[in-house]
C-alpha cells in the first residue's frame, strides 16, 4: 500500500491516476476528498492534515511506501510555512519509521537550503535533512518550478495577461527550468519501478532555462497575447500583497511569500539528466501550454 499526500495538487493529480493505472493500491491523506475528483473511488481515503499529526497513525497502517508531496508556499490558518513543510515532514517521517514503512519518497525543491532567503526553502531543507537521516530508505526529488495547464499559478498569469500591461513582481531575471507536472509524475513512477536504483536525490528540471520574464512571455505566446511587461519593485509588491493577505487571509490571490520565490533561481547544473536517467524527456513549456 502506498500513502500519497498532496494527491489533489499539481503533481499529485498527475501522479494518482498513473499509480492506480499501474495497479498500485493507494491511500490518500487529504483534507478535502472531493478535490480528488473521479479518482476518489479508486483509492482509500485517510482524512488528515499536516497540521494534525494525530491523523498520521491511521493513515500509515499497512503502508510500505510513502510519497509525500503535500506542502504549502503560504502560511495556513492552522500552521505556518515552517510547520507545514518542515515540522510536519519530520513528524511524518518519525511516524513512518514507527509504522514500519520501507520507503519514503519526498519532494523537496531545487534551492532548498538552510541559508536560502525564503522561508519555504529553509523549511524544505530541514525536512529533506530529516528524510535523509531517517532509518527508512528514501528518494528525494528536488524539482525546479513545476507547472500544469490550468494550475493556480498559470491561471493567475493568464488572468493578468488580460490587462493592458503584464505586471511582473520584481526584476524577472531569476532563472528556472520549468518542468511539466505530467513529466514529474512519470519520473516518480519510474523511480518506484527501480529505474534509478541507488540514487538518493534526483533534480527534476525541464529542457529550457528561462528567466521569469521568459516564462511570462511563454504564457503570453501560448495565449497569443502581446503585452509589454511592467516590472513592479519588490517593496511595492510586498506592501500590496501583505495588505491583501491581511484582509483575505488564506484566500488571498497571491502572497509575498509566493512572490518572493520568483526572485530566487531554481536551476539544476544537471539539467534534464536525472529525468532522462528515469527514462523521461521533459517537454518544453510552450508545447505543453499551447497544447491546452
Ligand atoms: N510547484 C512547484 O513549482 C514546486 C517547485 C519545487 C518543489 N515543489 C514541491 O513538489 C511537491 C508537489 O508540488 P505541487 O506543485 O503539486 O503542490 P501544490 O499543487 O501546491 O499542492 C499542494 C498539495 O498539498 C496539500 N496540502 C497543503 N496543505 C496541506 C495540509 N495542511 N494538510 C494536508 N495536505 C495539504 C494540498 O491539498 P489541498 O487540496 O487540501 O489544498 C495539495 O494537494 C510539493 O512538495 C512542492 O513543495 C513544487
**What is the helical fraction, as a range of percent?**
25-40%
What is the beta-strand fraction? 15-25%
**E-strand count:** 13
Structural class: alpha/beta
Uncertain stretches of 5 or more adjacent residues: none
Number of domains: 2
Supply the CATH class of the largest domain.
Alpha Beta
Radius of gyration: 19 Å
- In N-to-C order, the SSE pattern is EHEEHEHEHEEHEEEHEEHEHHHH
Name given to the CATH architecture of the largest domain: 3-Layer(aba) Sandwich
Please give the largest β-sheet: 7 strands, parallel
Strand order of the largest sheet: 3-2-1-4-5-6-11
Top keywords for this entry?
single chain, 292 residues, alpha/beta, Rossmann fold, UDP-galactose 4-epimerase, domain 1, 13 strands, binds NADP nicotinamide-adenine-dinucleotide phosphate
Short description:
With 292 residues, the protein is α/β, with parallel strands linked by helices. The chain has helices spanning 10-21, 56-60, 81-98, 119-133, 152-160, 181-192, 212-222, 234-248, 256-261, 273-277, 285-291, and strands at 2-5, 26-30, 44-47, 65-68, 103-107, 137-143, 146-147, 165-169, 175-176, 179-180, 201-204, 210-211, 228-232. The longest helix is centred in the N-terminal third of the chain and has 18 residues, at 81-98.
Amino acid at each position: 500500500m502506498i500513502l500519497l499526500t498532496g494527491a489533489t495538487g499539481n503533481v499529485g493529480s498527475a501522479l494518482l491516476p498513473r499509480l492506480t493505472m499501474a495497479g498500485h493500491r493507494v491511500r490518500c491523506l487529504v483534507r478535502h476528498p472531493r478535490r480528488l475528483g473521479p479518482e476518489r473511488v479508486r483509492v482509500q481515503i485517510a482524512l488528515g492534515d499536516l497540521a494534525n499529526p494525530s491523523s498520521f497513525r491511521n493513515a500509515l497502517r499497512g503502508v510500505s511506501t510513502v510519497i509525500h508531496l503535500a506542502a504549502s508556499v503560504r502560511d495556513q490558518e492552522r500552521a505556518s510555512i515552517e510547520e507545514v513543510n518542515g515540522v510536519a515532514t519530520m513528524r511524518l517521517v518519525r511516524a513512518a519509521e514507527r509504522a514500519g514503512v520501507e520507503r519514503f519518497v519526498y519532494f523537496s525543491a531545487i534551492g532548498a537550503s538552510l541559508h536560502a532567503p525564503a522561508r519555504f526553502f529553509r523549511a524544505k531543507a530541514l525536512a529533506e535533512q530529516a528524510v535523509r537521516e531517517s532509518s527508512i530508505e528514501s528518494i528525494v526529488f528536488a524539482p525546479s518550478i513545476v507547472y500544469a495547464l490550468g494550475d493556480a499559478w498559470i491561471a493567475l498569469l493568464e488572468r493578468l495577461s488580460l490587462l493592458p500591461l503584464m505586471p511582473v513582481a520584481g526584476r524577472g531575471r531569476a532563472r528556472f527550468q520549468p518542468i511539466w507536472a505530467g513529466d514529474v509524475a512519470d519520473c516518480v513512477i519510474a523511480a518506484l519501478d527501480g529505474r534509478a536504483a541507488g540514487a538518493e536525490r534526483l533534480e527534476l528540471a525541464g529542457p529550457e532555462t528561462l528567466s521569469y520574464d521568459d516564462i511570462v512571455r511563454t504564457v503570453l505566446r501560448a495565449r497569443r497575447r502581446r503585452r509589454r511587461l511592467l516590472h513592479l519593485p519588490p517593496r511595492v509588491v510586498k506592501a500590496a500583497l501583505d495588505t491583501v493577505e491581511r484582509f483575505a487571509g488564506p484566500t488571498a490571490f497571491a502572497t509575498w511569500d509566493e512572490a518572493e520565490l520568483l526572485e530566487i533561481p531554481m536551476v539544476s547544473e544537471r539539467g534534464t539528466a536525472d529525468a532522462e536517467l528515469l527514462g523521461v524527456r521533459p517537454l518544453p513549456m510552450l508545447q505543453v501550454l499551447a497544447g491546452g
